[in-house]
Structure of HD-GYP domain-containing protein:
Amino acid sequence: MVGVKYLTQLEKEHETRKVLLSLAQSIQERDIVTYEHSRRVAVYAQRLARYLGWTRREARNLALAAMVHDLGKTWIRNDILNKSAALSSEERRMMERHPVVGARILIGCDVPPFYVETVLYHHEAWNGNGYPVGLKGEEIPLSARILSVADVYDVLTSQRPYKAPLTSREAQERLLKSVGTHFDPKVLDGFIHLLKIKPHFTLPQHVCSISTQAQAEPKLYSLIAGGH
């Protein structure tokens, strides 16, 4: 009986993984820049989670959540998503809805709450000034706090239409200015330590070609399954 339950749980995890990788593929087809950003964030988040003591399984699950953390952006118009100038107040409100939109899509796909909460709260801030809910401190799920650091680091070190990339050192300095306000101090301290002990921690920014779902799913999963 125990064996049957265990296999059923494995089957559920397999189905969840298939759903999340399929959604990641949809991001790739909609916006390759967002997909590549998500791919790098997944690796950073997985490495950070492992450093903070998460099991390999837990860290892989976080990486899967990171692959779809910007899923809601696939519903944002290109003229807003790729705008090089500052966003208007209305455009920013639309952009800030992407965690809610992404979470709703995940709920509709019947994935476990861990993934929904991680996506929904990855823009919450330690001091309570984040969005969409305004959670504060440890009210924010740890998965979302880890994802937040990885997400912002990649944004800072990547080329965007509105900015040049920062060096790793410049990005660290920028992150440290927000410790205790935007970021969980313990999580950020762990991330900064990883950057210091791993000189080649930062992944190169590049755009890969769009592959079929059959090709993409094994590639995506091997990427996150091989993280440390």
